[in-house]
Amino acid sequence: MSVPPSARSLVVRDATPEDAPALAALLAELGYPTPPDVVAARLAALVGAGDRALVAVDGSEALGLLTVHVTPVLHRPTAVGRLTALVVAERARGRGVGRALVAAGERALAARGCALIEVTSNRRRTDAHAFYERLGYTGTSLRFAKTLAPEGLRAGCDTGVRLPAEPGPTAPARSMR
Ligand SMILES: CC(C)(COP(=O)(O)OP(=O)(O)OC[C@H]1O[C@@H](n2cnc3c(N)ncnc32)[C@H](O)[C@@H]1OP(=O)(O)O)[C@@H](O)C(=O)NCCC(=O)NCCS
Predict the structure, then answer these.
(1) pLDDT band at residue 150 under the 50/70/90 scheme
(2) Residue 1 located in a structural domain
(3) What is the whole-number distance in angstroms between the Cα of residue 176 and the centre of ligand 1?
């Protein structure tokens, strides 16, 4: 049984590769089971792209994770900040860990010039919706999502999904229809 975090002992810091096993456990709680080595590779890519992964720790115990992203846009005067993943270990929920993570994420995004912060949350996560509203977020939009075919994934970004290799130069050309 874990000791509840106190306000004094909770620290929010940038995640490191050594955190990968703990982050993998947190992502599994979020519903995204991911092997630690894949988490480590994705963390490196995420940080390399300028995003932040913040981890809330009590002593050596990782209790929560928040990743944040800055989206430059043309239609607003400032970039838009996005909370891209948030989870607190079930054993530590309801004790201010999520609030501390979001506060740190907001500071990080404000420092990058974001005047608006948004988050997407699945309709079924009603507890999370109440949490965000408590923190001052308002439900304003609907999200429309589409899963791309593998070709679209390959042409886009590396999500960690391993796809079959592209056909080499000797492969027969495919006709376009
Ligand atoms: C949502 C989640 C991140 C909240 O983290 P948490 O550490 O439990 O939240 P906190 O203890 O920091 O709560 C902050 C405030 O929100 C309120 N709150 C949290 N959950 C709530 C709920 N289900 N209903 C109403 N209020 C809630 C708290 O009462 C607290 O208010 P207060 O500080 O004024 O007392 C956490 O429950 C979680 O990981 N859930 C599962 C994963 C998930 O849904 N992630 C979000 C995906 S979009």
Answers:
(1) confident
(2) no
(3) 51
- CB of 88 sitting under 6 A from ligand 1: yes
Domain with residue 30: its CATH number is: 3.40.630.30
Q: Would the CB of 127 count as within 6 Å of ligand 1?
A: yes
Look up the pTM and report it: 0.87
Total domains present in the chain: 1
| Secondary structure string (H, E, C) spanning the chain | CCCCCCCCCEEEEECCHHHHHHHHHHHHHHCCCCCHHHHHHHHHHHHHCCCEEEEEEECCEEEEEEEEEEECCCCCCCCEEEEEEEEECHHHCCCCHHHHHHHHHHHHHHHCCCCEEEECCCCCCHHHHHHHHHCCCCCCCCCCCCCCCHHHHHHCCCCCCCCCCCCCCCCCCCCCC
User: Could you tell me the distance, in angstroms and rounded to a whole number, from the CA of residue 22 to the centre of ligand 1?
Assistant: 20
Range of the domain at 122: 10-155
- Model confidence over 18-66: pLDDT tens digits? 999 999 999 999 999 999 999 999 999 999 999 999 999 999 999 999 9
Q: Is residue 109 assigned to a domain?
A: yes
In this structure, is residue 160 part of a structural domain?
no
Q: Is residue 46 part of a domain?
A: yes
88 CA → ligand 1 middle, Å: 8
